[in-house]
Structures are given as structure tokens and as C-alpha cells.
Amino acid sequence: MLGTFGDIVFEVSDERVKTFDGYNRQGQARYASHEVLGRKPILEYLGAALDQVSFSMKLNAGLGVNPVEELAKLRKMLNGGQAARLVIGGKPQGEDKWVLESLSETYDYLDNKGNVIVATVNLTLKEYIDKRSSA
């Protein structure tokens, strides 16, 4: 197993291949801008913004994955606001959980009966800070 995000398991085995491509993590700083008469504004550092992670996954029935079932799990996470740990290579990505902020899906290949054989999904996760633990 390469990693997990909630009920989604990234793995490579002799029965199944479900991995991701194009992992990108982005962080930002937050600043307030204070206007000063006759001078440039003064920036005040407020703290770190929430990190974002994005990647794509190829869901291929020929590699032991049921694209329709996996897409249903992802939609459930998106629509339910479920926060989960993101673990890659046995290492948690950050100290906090993540939520699925956006999901786009493309049906790459359907058989002659309309069954999804290959789908590509693009995911964007956002760091989730539990308000009970941030005080």
C-alpha cells in the first residue's frame, strides 16, 4: 500500500493498481495590508494559510479497480464534508486532516454496454483544522 485518504487506498499489488499522478502541495502566507498616508502600505503577517494538495488518479477496471464504486466513494466524501488523514508512503501529510474540496471526473473509456472501464479523476484537498484542537 502506498497510502490512504479516508476510505480511498492508493496501492499497487498483483491484483490491483490504484495510484495517483501529479501530486502538488501548495502553501501560502496570509498578510493584512495597512494603508499609510503618503507611503506604501505596511504588510502585517497574520499566519499561514491552509495548505492545498492536488493530484489525479486513473481508475482502470483492467487493473482491478471498479471506477464507478471509487467515484461514488469520492463523491460521498466531497458531498459529506468528511475530513480524513492523507498518508503517503506511511507518512501523514501534515499534522491535520484534509477535506476533498473539488472533484472532476472524466470517463475515458466505456464499453459497448455503457459500463465505465477507465475514468480519470482530479482531486483538490484542503487542510482541515479542527476548531476544537486549534484553540
TrEMBL record:
In terms of superkingdom, the source organism counts as: Bacteria
Q: Which Pfam families match?
A: Phage_P2_GpU (PF06995)
Task: Please report the name of this protein according to its UniProt entry.
Answer: p2 GpU family protein
Provide the species name. Pelosinus fermentans JBW45
